[in-house]
Write a structure and sequence with these properties.
This protein has 411 residues and is mostly helical. Helix content is 74%, strand content 0%. Helix 2 packs parallel to helix 7 and helix 6 packs antiparallel against helix 16. The longest helix has 32 residues.
């Protein structure tokens, strides 16, 4: 970690992402709280998460953009456009403008896909291979750890002054992030892109043809198709199970952030010594146990469950991201990252929609148990799903020369 801290460019990137993600976390939770305040419906609140996940079907197209443009410029553009988008929430006065909340949520879904892919490629191009795991660990720790502060600030500001001032805080964070990104001196060399229809699908093709990546993607399909159920259930858990106001979701998400800090620090130390596939399986298993704990509907048990979910997410994310980076040439890193995003987000989107329906007809405990079983199954598949005798050559160092990647034959 000390060697990573000496890299000026990564420090600036981490600072910019910290500012941007802080703004994100103050508003993302508030969108659901705002929707429930306007409508009184937990299902409608859960559908804000669905709106964030829905753009995942466009992920391969976003990957082409990320691989064709300078990635620093992509990140700058996302932050500056975000200022305009979140500022539109000043137009929300009552439930007639509910559609604006969903529109902003959908923008967040698009921005997340583009930002994650651009960041992954930028990190891969600026750091040696041995620092990719610790770098992913640092980014994931910040991303998840901000759940400690962001949701509390957002929910508190929403209760005190309303959602429009939360949007203003988010816009300010975007502006500051853009200022930091302007200080980045790292310049990627020009990358050649494959042409034709295969360019869009190159990321998915690489995921399928690379054994280690196919294994991660297959388990992620099962995990994502299960974990989305809990997104639409959390408001029912707070309302019907814990008998707390909707703003209490902010407390649960902040507890999850505490677990994420612990998980992020742990995985940063372990990623260089533990097989990445095991990290992915451990992360999925922790989320499974945490989701099952939520079904008990006892405050201490629920808090412990959210702590475990928080710890599991960065372990899973770092294991998967490092696997992708170590087995993908930089020229197609954006398309592979967004291909994996599609594998993750499309099942999540479908399961969020299903969860929003189920929570209206089934006890939330049943939905959480189903989530736990699905996540546990994904962890088992990750452990036993390897293909004997198959070994993928790792990309020993990032492809910094901008040459075409040999893996693209057909993101």
């Amino acid at each position: 970690m000390r060697e990573l801290a000496r890299h000026r460019e990564f420090r600036l990137l981490l600072a910019a992402q910290t500012l941007s993600m802080f703004g994100d976390w103050t508003l993302l939770l508030v969108l659901g709280i705002w929707a429930k305040t306007l409508t009184g419906s937990s299902a409608v609140a859960g559908l804000t998460v669905f709106a964030m996940a829905a753009p995942g079907v466009l992920a391969p197209l976003a990957g082409v953009v990320v691989d064709r443009l300078p990635r620093r410029s992509v990140l700058l553009g996302v932050n500056l456009v975000g200022v305009v988008v979140v500022s539109s929430l000043w137009l929300v006065h009552d439930r007639r403008q509910l559609w604006l909340l969903f529109a902003v949520a959908a923008w967040y879904g698009i921005a997340s896909i583009v930002t994650n892919a651009a960041t992954s490629g930028l990190v891969q191009s600026m750091l040696p291979a041995e620092l990719l795991g610790p770098a992913n660990g640092a980014l994931s720790t910040v991303r998840q750890g901000l759940r400690l502060l962001g949701p509390l600030v957002g929910a508190g500001l929403f209760a005190a002054a309303g959602g429009r001032w939360v949007a203003t805080l988010d816009a300010t964070a975007f502006v500051l992030a853009a200022v930091v990104l302007l200080r980045l001196r790292h310049r990627e060399q020009r990358r050649d892109s494959t042409a034709g229809r295969g360019e869009v699908l190159a990321g998915l093709v690489h995921l399928w043809r690379t054994t280690a990546l196919r294994r991660v993607a297959r388990s992620t399909l099962v995990f994502s198709g299960s974990v989305g159920l809990v997104e639409a259930t959390v408001y029912a858990l707070v309302d019907d199970g814990l008998h707390r106001p909707a703003e209490f979701v902010g407390v649960l998400v902040s507890v999850q952030g505490g677990g994420a800090i612990a998980g992020g620090v742990a995985v940063s130390l372990l990623v260089s010594r533990v097989d990445e596939a095991r990290l992915v399986a451990v992360g999925m298993a922790l989320v499974a146990v945490g989701a099952g704990a939520g079904a008990v509907a006892s405050l201490p048990v629920v808090l412990t469950g959210f702590l475990l979910v928080g710890a599991g997410l960065p372990v899973l994310a770092v294991g998967a991201a490092t696997t992708l980076q170590r087995r993908t040439p930089n020229a197609v890193m954006g398309r592979v990252a967004t291909g994996y995003e599609m594998v993750s987000s499309v099942p999540t989107t479908a399961s969020i929609a299903v969860g929003a329906l189920l929570v209206g007809v089934l006890p939330f405990q049943v939905v959480l148990v189903v989530t736990a079983v699905g996540c546990a199954s994904a962890a088992v598949l990750m452990v036993v799903g390897g293909e004997a005798g198959s070994h993928d050559p790792a990309v020993a160092s990032p492809d910094r020369d901008g040459g075409s990647a040999s893996c693209v034959r057909a993101r």
